[in-house]
Amino acid sequence: MAQDAQSSISPQRAQSSGPYVLRTLFADVPLSEDGSRDDIRINCVEYLDSNLYIGTSDSELLHFFQIPDDPSDHSGVPTFILASRLRPAFSDAAGASNASLPGVQEILLLPSVGKACVLCNSTVTFYSLPELSPVFGTTQVKNCGWIGGVDLNQDAQDTGDATILLSLSRKIQVVRIGEDARVLKKIDFAGSRLSVRRDTIACVADSRGYALLEINQQLKIPLMSISSLDEAQPGTIVGQAQDISGSAGGGLLRSNSSSQARAQTESPDTQSHRRGTSLGNLISGANRRQEQHTADFEEPGSRSATPPAPVASPGPPDALATARAATPEGAAEARPTKAQAPRTTFLKPHIVSPTPDEFLLVTGTSPLDPGIGMFVNTEAEPTRPTIEFTRYPRQIAVDGGSSDSASSKLPLNPKEEGFVLASMSKELADGIHYGLEIQRWDADGAEDQSTRYWLEPSRESTTGIKVAQPLGVRSLLGIYDTNFQEIVDRLCKRRFNPFSSGTVEVSSVSLKSVDSRTAQSIERMSKEKELFDRDTDSQDDESLPEGWQATRNTEEEEFARRLAGTATRVAVWAGPCIWWAIRNPLILQLDDKLEAVSSMSNETPLKRRELFKMINALRGRDAKSELEFLTFSYIQQQVGVLLLISFLDTTENSFTEAELQAMEGALVDSQLDPRVVLSIIPGVRNEVIETRRGIWIFGGVKTTAERFISSADFDHKVHTTLSTLTPPVLQFLRRFLSTWRRKKGFGSVSDEIEVFRTVDAALLAVLLELDQYSPPGPAKSRSVRAELYELVDGGVDCFDRAETLIESYHQLFVLSRLYQSKKMAREVLDTWKRIIEGERNDGGELQDGELRVREYLSKPINRALIPEYGIWLANRNPKLGVQVFADDKGKAPKFEPTYVIELLRTDAPGAVKYYLEYLVFGKGHTIYVNELITYYLDVVVTHLQTSAEARDVVLSTYDAYRALQPPKPTYRQFLTDNAPADDEAWHSRLRLLQLLGGKYDYDLSVIRDRISSLSSVADDLLVPEIIILDGRERNHENALRLLVHRLGDYDTAVAYCFRGGASVYSIYQAETSNAVPTSPEDFKAPKWRESAPPTQDEQARLFRALLGEFLQLEDINDRVEQTGLLLEKFGSWFDVSDILAVIPDGWSVDIVAGFLIKALRQIVAERNETTVARSLSSAQNLKMQHDLIVKIEEKAPSVES
Question: Minimal CA–CA distance to 1096: which of 1142, 1125, 1138, 1134?
């Protein structure tokens, strides 16, 4: 079922958004020669090669010539001058008045032979083209009801003779027009009123029905009646072929259903489709529908109560003789009388041929009831679903279609839609309107494409019509080329002014413009704009000659005008006005719908819904031409801008997520310059970059955007900051700009540099604004902060603007990442330094900042930065700072230790000790041991001298250690186990003990003097250190005394004696050189030579001294225990007599029993060993004597003389 288009839009909008528009062909035709009559009407119109021919009801034929258009005139209205005003000859009917005569009824142009046939008052006359000079002498054809029947399949460019059909009273004459007019054949068909021919098949109509004629074989196939209420004539079988070559009645020749000449060449699918619906069923179905739509009201002048008068019989068959005047064509629509009883209604037949093998016939019941269009092929078989007209048409014309050479098509469109235009009246609220009902004739029955459109002339174009009149419509022979200025206006790219609101602050924006959140002075902004223009346009000055903008405007207009061209051959007329019915381009249809939607009051959900419908209608459609491609882009841009404006103005009924995504998709897919989008959003429009070349967009989009920007409401919001935008707007900008940023590198993006500078700056500002609501700390996956990091890490095109924005949001860590994206190491370190020193950083991401600096300095960066920031870090965190210079695994440049030490001594003295530790303990550079010991001594001594509490702690450790019960660790291990984690002096003392007890060479006297300085505050504070020094100085007795009596470290004392007093914690000591190293190898630890172990005599001497100290212990238990253990384990180093001499007489023998037993066993063993050795020596002596005697005997005595 067909439906009216744009039911929710006003009729005026619905007309301009339909598939056709009316454009003036001739605004006011001078129908009356002197202008005194206004009752003359236009009967017919024809056009060919800039010549316009108009036939009037006053029996005049007007010839106008079109003046070539002025290239500067883009109005599209042709200009005509009157070439001639002709009254064709005709035969007056007896008693007929001029007022009752129909006038010029038909103009038939035959360009192949340069002739024109004119039917005026039932008389045919012949003329030459284009000047309409009479030809063929006085030849006339009288009593003719219709002329036509030109073969529509014949190419209009053919130069051969033309064949036409003349409808006489009882016959149809086939006439060949060439150098003369000659009758070729006469067909027995009475009262024909209309004919349309394809090859040898003509579809004709009389006053009651339609039929197909085969001209050569003179066969007739009756078709349906014009009026479905009219009963078929007796003996007529619809769809059955009849031979009319012999008798008028004709004989039954064959059944149409058995005629397979053409059908057999068609595909099986086509055959089955066509055979599925018989012509009889099709007619009966159409009749039933018409009966259901019978109107209950009448329109004056619309019904015919009596059939038209028959046409007079033709003259002699061998000549074109005169005939009586035929009844006027409009007799079928004579003035009606109120019907008293059911009477037959005679309707005007309508035949058109949309394709080379199809005819469209119209049937109905009455002029006010619906009409049915039926398609039959040249074999009288139905081919398509029927179409329905709201009322029975007055006239119809077809246009378009893949096979229609008369299509008023736009260029570059490979397949044109087919439409049928029907002239009729329509009852509206303000009365009866005359116009055209337009619908598709090529719609597939499976698709809902049966929408009907209503088109009528505008009031401005009908000022010359005093009384409303029905429209005439006809497809003309010639094609008229024109163009749509509206397309040029919409698609021609124009320079967009994003700051048309006129405010100084906004119009002065530049790359480093005023911050989005802080108002800046006009002076600063103007200076920045000058700087930006100088930087960005320095390369453009040579390429922008004077008048470049006007040149580009002209080029853009020429390009758009090439796409705006169109052609038509359908004419519409009423009163003295004639219009071209031009196919309305898709862009104008959709744009007019947009204007209708945008004109809706307020921002209602209905308005939004209509806009989204337009987006959905374009989704998935493939452009078939360049114009269609630009149309889709233009409409998407327009819809996107309108939706964005609605989105910004909506306070209630906010957009859903799906609607936001659809809007974003429309804006991105349409390739609209994102600077246009940003320019209409307060708060981010300051980021728009516009160079001297400007921003060029479609003219229609420019108008929409600038209209919004120039509005009073927008002026009030122009100073809105980014922080005042709602979260939905910010989130939309986030997604939209991120999507656009992914287009970087695409060649399709014009003005790429300015576009992506703007996109990057705006996206950065939006993300910074959103990140204010993120919790402090590192970024989480898929968070705003993570996206912000990704943006700056990937590098931005607006680097200077990015610095300003990030600084204004106090996001220093983000700023450091921005610098890192450009490999700006100094700026990265300087920014981290600002954060570590306490400058405001709202993100709070830089945790363990000092460690990050240390790690960064280990990377391959500028060599000069390492000392600078390494010293800074060493002053803040000495332990971490020296790692910058001590890192061997990093890729950073390396420095000589001597240079580092001097640098640290000068700029970071607190870190020297830690660097020396690295050199001594990490790298084995013993040359620095003495200096490191000095640092440790300074720390420990200074701490003890200045802190009484520290002194008490040290002394208490001695008492606590002495109180430990054996077995107990060494005193150094005791200190290590009890060292506080944060006591620097304690740890320095442990390091000092490690160095003093190690295999290093150092200045003993200096160290002893430094330790002796503590005597002023307390005695024996650094006992282990003095013990080590005494051991180095061979002052073993004092060392043993301190070990035994001051520390109570008996195990260490025993080890001391066993090692020969070389060291307390190391075994053997060798001499080392104190020379200054001259190469890196010299810093390494020397290769120590193991000296010979101490002799037993040295050990015995030390053990005897230790025994003496043990015997002097105050605690008798310790004295007895330690003496017994010493004698038991190391008794071999003692003489029994000496031990017995020093052991107190009061001690029990059990104390030394073990020693004595071992000693006695040793004496016995030694004695036995001596006996064995003596015996072995005697045996050896005997053997030697035996060997001597043997040798002497071997030599024998000799005599010497």
Answer: 1134
